[in-house]
Design brief:
By secondary structure, the chain is mainly alpha-helical. The protein is built from 20 helices and no strands. It has helices at 17-29, 35-42, 47-61, 65-72, 75-84, 88-100, 107-116, 119-133, 137-144, 147-157, 169-182, 191-200, 203-217, 221-228, 231-245, 247-259, 266-276, 281-292, 296-303, 306-316. Helix 2 packs parallel to helix 20 (306-316), helix 5 (75-84) packs parallel to helix 20 and helix 16 (247-259) packs across helix 18. Keywords: Annexin, Calcium, Calcium/phospholipid-binding, Phosphoprotein, Repeat. Belongs to the annexin family. This is Annexin. One of its GO terms (cellular component) is nucleus.
Length: 320
């Protein structure tokens, strides 16, 4: 697991899996579950430490920690604690499986994951999917989605985006012109050109292309995509453009939307808080404050309550 310095959850110094297992067993097996202890331990250990803890727990009890968390907690808190006890690639994999379950797909989950994850994260996700289902994720996705949206998502799901750091200014100009000709300039839009450029080029290359596109068309690429397309494809390509500009700002927007208006989308909130907790949650907090003039922590406090709120606050950390 890569260690990212911009997360809010850091490895615990002097970590001892045996001590943690004893404390967790006491919290779970005693009379009435002591959720505060579960929260304290699971939000104050790195993901790698939590996996060592899960192994030690199974050795000591013959049960998995996830099984016991499911048996002893409920609702949004259960979902969040189970997410913390799950390795990141397996967690992404379960979210994708959830998005494909039942009639139709939850495109929002698929878009968020495939637009924001690195090649390495996507490959880890697809490996986890193969291990759990004995099936290839791209084949299963193909059976669930269709059209240009499917083409774009399947390109991303291959985890083969160009990773070169070098920027080719001429190629950026050429791509910007191709996109302008395929959209704003013609009657009807050639979506495949947008899919090809946005799902294959490296992030630094796309940043340059966004600048060149503004020069060619006078509009931002996001404005053109929103004006020329609709539905899931529009949502996916806009998410890619936002992530090219700033992944933390993209997640700050998603978090704000999950807490806005009537009722909270706890599932999206949980997914983002857990999946970014060791990567860039400090940067997401900074972007949230910049965009909405209040701290992420204060937004969480005014939106959530009870033990689930306590757990999300613990992941979020400081009030900056």
């Amino acid at each position: 697991m890569l260690n990212f310095p911009r997360g809010t959850i850091k490895p615990k110094a002097g970590f001892n899996a045996g001590d943690d297992v004893a404390a967790l067993r006491n919290a779970i097996e005693g009379l009435g579950t002591k959720e505060k202890i579960l929260i304290e331990i699971l939000t104050r250990r790195s993901s790698a430490q939590r996996q060592l803890l899960c192994e030690a727990y199974k050795e000591a009890t013959g049960r998995t920690l996830v099984e016991d968390l499911r048996g002893d907690t409920s609702g949004d808190l259960e979902e969040l604690l189970v997410a913390l006890a799950t390795p990141p690639a397996a967690f992404d994999c379960h979210q994708v499986m959830k998005a494909m379950k039942g009639a139709g797909t939850n495109d929002g989950i698929l878009i968020e994951i495939f637009a924001s994850r690195s090649n390495q994260q996507i490959r880890a996700l697809t490996d986890a999917y193969l291990k759990e289902t004995q099936k290839k994720l791209t084949l299963d996705l193909r059976g669930e989605i269709s059209g240009d949206f499917a083409e774009a998502l399947l390109l991303l799901a291959e985890g083969k985006r160009d990773e070169s750091a070098a920027v080719d200014a001429e190629k950026a100009k050429k791509d910007a012109k191709t996109l302008y000709d395929a959209g704003e300039k013609k009657w009807g839009t050639d979506e495949s050109k947008f899919v090809d450029v946005l799902c294959r080029r490296s992030v630094p290359q796309l940043r340059q292309t966004l600048l060149e596109y503004k020069n060619v068309s006078g509009k931002t690429l996001q404005q053109s995509v929103e004006g020329e397309m609709s539905g899931a494809l529009e949502e996916l390509l806009v998410a890619i453009v936002k992530c090219v500009k700033s992944v933390p700002a993209y997640f700050a927007e998603r978090l704000h939307a999950s807490m806005k208006g009537g009722g909270t989308d706890e599932s999206t909130l949980n997914r983002i808080m857990v999946s970014r907790s060791e990567i860039d949650l400090l940067d997401i907090r900074a972007e949230f404050k910049k965009l909405y003039k209040c701290s992420l922590l204060s937004a969480i406090k005014s939106d959530l309550s009870g033990l689930h709120g306590d757990c999300v606050e613990a992941i979020c950390g400081g009030d900056d």
